[in-house]
Amino acid sequence: MAIKLYYDLMSQPSRTLYILLKSLNCNLELKSVDLRKGEHYSEEFTKVNRMQRVPVIDHNGFVLSESVAIVKYLSRENIIPENLYPRESRLQARVEEFLEWHHVGLRLHCAMYFRVKYMDPILFGRKTDERQIASYERRMVSALEDFNSKWLGRGTPFIVGESVTVADLFAATELEQPRMAGYDPKEHFPVIATWAQKVREFFPHYDEAHVILNKVIAKQSKTSKL
Amino acid sequence: MAIKLYYDLMSQPSRTLYILLKSLNCNLELKSVDLRKGEHYSEEFTKVNRMQRVPVIDHNGFVLSESVAIVKYLSRENIIPENLYPRESRLQARVEEFLEWHHVGLRLHCAMYFRVKYMDPILFGRKTDERQIASYERRMVSALEDFNSKWLGRGTPFIVGESVTVADLFAATELEQPRMAGYDPKEHFPVIATWAQKVREFFPHYDEAHVILNKVIAKQSKTSKL
């Protein structure tokens, strides 16, 4: 069964789906949508997704947006295996409890820090006020503290118990984003660093999905050393 | 089977679960947690939910937070009926697509407007800057425009087709919140007004869950007329 994935590797949930789908044996057709060129606002893409966002999948004509909804759907369709998305009701509920929390509990704060510190100056040609950046950083650090102690650091190596699930992958790709703005959560939270390395090693396409992001970081670090 | 619901009717997702669970034939035990008294920070409640938030359920000893995860779980357990949470995979995906979008697409903006305009002055004893309120209002109105045209206004009376689902109830309780800060979405969007009335009529416990909220609004309107 063919799955088309509309994605941009600069988008965290796009990377999650790219890494997941590439690791499965499915007939995957990759459709790049360049957010920096505004391709998500094009007439052609708006016909695919009226919300003008990536990622989106087209599974045999069924078009679906929202990464978490997509993963749930692909799990029901037996495309995502049980080890990554548990079928047992209570275990599944634990994965979903994290996925629902992460939207505003983790993703929002990492994404906003990235946006105000890295994207806004590029998009609007002006530096963001230092005090404003500090305020976004405080909120992100508080979210990372919650993630570090209330989801990790509870005696098991992964968010839900002893093995990797989609919850870990969603969290890991979000935590890569602020690195482009100069903040690497792994340098501040050893528990996060150990966990992130295990998630990275588990998924064979993890590094491939982060090639562009890592290039941006390398370029930034070179510039800041000049 | 007994379900304990920890809730506060000032919390939007608490109202959603209160309305849903009261309308079903389940053995419901209501456990009020007064957010205004800070009861969610108590040692007793932190033992129930380390995230210190409501709503939470305890279903025969299984404690679960995050309203959307709770509703999914109760649907799998056949406590929420199929008409409100579809079992067919693609229809279920449509409901979940909305639920995942609504966290940051709708809820965040309605909640932040309520917080900065209504709650912050009560909590911190100072009026929020008018320009800041206007900026939060703009973001909320933009979210309401998306909701009005991209989720409603597509030729069917409800978010997912011809009948009410949990998606409608989640959205409706969120849209009540900014009314306490003086903004009623129904007064600005006729499509939303028609839809909201249908959702309200569908659930027998809708008004009961909004008694406290409506009292706050009546008091506000009285004060503003003095």
UniProtKB/TrEMBL annotation, chains A, B:
Keywords: Cytoplasm, Transferase. Belongs to the GST superfamily. Theta family. It comes from the Eukaryota. GO terms for molecular function: glutathione transferase activity. The keyword Cytoplasm applies. PROSITE patterns: GST_CTER (PS50405), GST_NTER (PS50404). GO terms for cellular component: cytoplasm. The gene is GSTTheta1. Residues 1-82 form the GST N-terminal domain. It catalyses: RX + glutathione = an S-substituted glutathione + a halide anion + H(+). This is Glutathione S-transferase theta1. It is found in: Cytoplasm. One of its GO terms (biological process) is glutathione metabolic process. CDD domains: GST_C_Theta, GST_N_Theta. It holds the Pfam family GST_N. Its main location: cytoplasm. Residues 88-225 form the GST C-terminal domain.
